Amino acid sequence: MQRLIAFGCSLTYGLGLADPEQTAWPKLLADMYTRQCVNNGVPDASAKEIAYDILNFKFDPTDIVYINWSYFTRSCVITEKKIIQLGRWNKRFRGVKAWIAYYYNKHNERNEGFAYINLCNHFLKKKKIKTYNMLVYNGYIDYAKEFIPYHKTNFLKDCHFDEYINYYPLDSNDIDHPNEQGHEKFAKLLYDKSIKEEYSL
């Protein structure tokens, strides 16, 4: 059976859902295509970690790939044995405070994020893999238009999952992830925009 491959963070993984393997948007979208779902979403993943996963994944020529690029406020350190995620939530890693104090700034994070996006799309294009890209946060598109002239990757138009978090929060204790209805509506939006080939940027 041909596959639909999804990459992203917890919003792709389906964190908080009772049965993410069956109710997260990658599975729902794969069912619309009548394809096998391979959900490579990783909670708290950064664009760097998503790119690492893409570059090390074994693709088939018939795969369709959806990449839900995460918030650029995240990063990671890749070692031989593990990936150390960097973000304000990760208080266990002592280097986080130093990273925030000395290395983190908005322009750097966004240039780095778009560089990973362009790298992965060039990589997949060379393999002739059909690929669709989404940005979790819609504000990144305007930033790219103004400050990142080298950016060449198109994104599915108006497909930003952060908007679905606001309308379909998981529950009162978790307002950072969408519920099953949010995943359903996002999967339908992705399918419709993909069929119509509607892009932005």
Q: Describe it for me?
A:
This protein is an alpha/beta fold and 201 residues long. It has one domain: Rossmann fold. The chain is 44% helix and 22% strand. The chain is built from 9 helices and 10 strands. The protein has helices spanning 10-13, 20-23, 25-33, 47-55, 95-103, 106-126, 139-147, 161-167, 180-196; strands spanning 3-8, 36-41, 64-69, 75-78, 83-86, 130-135, 155-156, 169-171, 174-178, 199-200. The strands form 4 sheets. The chain has a 4-stranded parallel beta sheet with strand order 2-1-3-6, with helices on both faces. The protein has a two-stranded antiparallel sheet with strand order 4-5. Helix 4 packs parallel to helix 6. The N and C termini lie far apart (33 Å). The mean pLDDT is 91.
Secondary-structure blueprint:
Blueprint: E1 3-8, H1 10-13, H2 20-23, H3 25-33, E2 36-41, H4 47-55, E3 64-69, E4 75-78, E5 83-86, H5 95-103, H6 106-126, E6 130-135, H7 139-147, E7 155-156, H8 161-167, E8 169-171, E9 174-178, H9 180-196, E10 199-200
Parallel strand pairs: 1-2, 1-3, 3-6
Antiparallel strand pairs: 4-5, 7-10, 8-9
Helix pairs in contact: 3-9, 4-6, 8-9
Please name the defining characteristics of this protein:
Rossmann fold; four-stranded parallel β-sheet; single chain; 22% strand; 9 helices; two-stranded antiparallel ribbon; globular; 201 residues; 10 strands; alpha/beta
